[in-house]
Amino acid sequence: MALHAGTLLALILCFWRDWIEMLTRKRRLFYLILLASVPAGVVGVLFNDFVEESLRSPYIIVVALVLGGIVMLLSERMFKHRSLENLNLPDAVVIGIAQAVALVPGVSRSGITISAGLFRGLDRSSSARFSFLLSTPIIRGAALLHTGKMMTGTEQYELNLFMAGLQHQL
């Protein structure tokens, strides 16, 4: 929970200008981010407990790390030429689905979404920027989910651990 809160704060501090611009001028990009957030949001809400309880095996994590690395290596070989301004609906859907895959422990959320952007032909900078902008709603959702569990008592948190996690992210 603290790591989510710290990451969310860092994202807001780093990308606040982008968010203001999206809300005032670049609404198309804002809507594409919202749309791309849907797959991970739905999968996260429906399968969070399953992921937490059943997919934490070291074997699953190792396989996910290796496969993720292979995907990242392959994506680097793709021809990249399009900018963030040329992001389209199919790009957003593919990258959003990739973000949902990142719920599997061992899969890097930023690695898989940047790779998906590269596979879709976005240049590195645009792929990375979209990945980090896309992470904001999903990390906010995860923070809210875990805050709700903390408030209802279904998850226990120690204040010292929370503060250490928050401080680590800042």
Descriptive overview:
The chain has helices at residues 2-24, 27-54, 58-76, 89-101, 109-119, 124-152, 159-169. Helix 1 (2-24) crosses helix 6, helix 2 crosses helix 6 and helix 5 runs antiparallel to helix 6 (124-152). The longest helix has 29 residues, at 124-152. By secondary structure, the chain is mostly helical. It is globular and about 45 Å long. The protein is built from seven helices and no strands. Helices cover 79% and strands 0% of the residues. The mean pLDDT is 88. The protein has one domain (2-169). The two termini are 14 Å apart.
Instruction: Count the beta strands.
Output: 0
- Give the distance, in angstroms, between the N- and C-terminal Cα atoms: 14 Å
Main sheet attributes: strand count, strand direction, barrel closure: none
* Mean pLDDT over all positions: 88
Helix/strand structural class = mainly alpha
Order of helices and strands: HHHHHHH
Poorly predicted regions are none
Instruction: Report the helical percentage.
Output: over 70%
Compute the gyration radius: what is it? Answer: 16 Å
Domain count:
1
Specify the number of helices.
7
Question: What is the approximate shape?
Answer: globular
Percent strand equals under 5%
Which short descriptors sum up this protein?
170 residues; mainly alpha; globular
Quick summary:
This protein is mainly α. Helices cover 79% and strands 0% of the residues. The chain is globular.
Write the layout of secondary structure elements.
Elements: H1 2-24, H2 27-54, H3 58-76, H4 89-101, H5 109-119, H6 124-152, H7 159-169
Helix pairs in contact: 1-2, 1-6, 1-7, 2-4, 2-6, 3-5, 4-5, 5-6
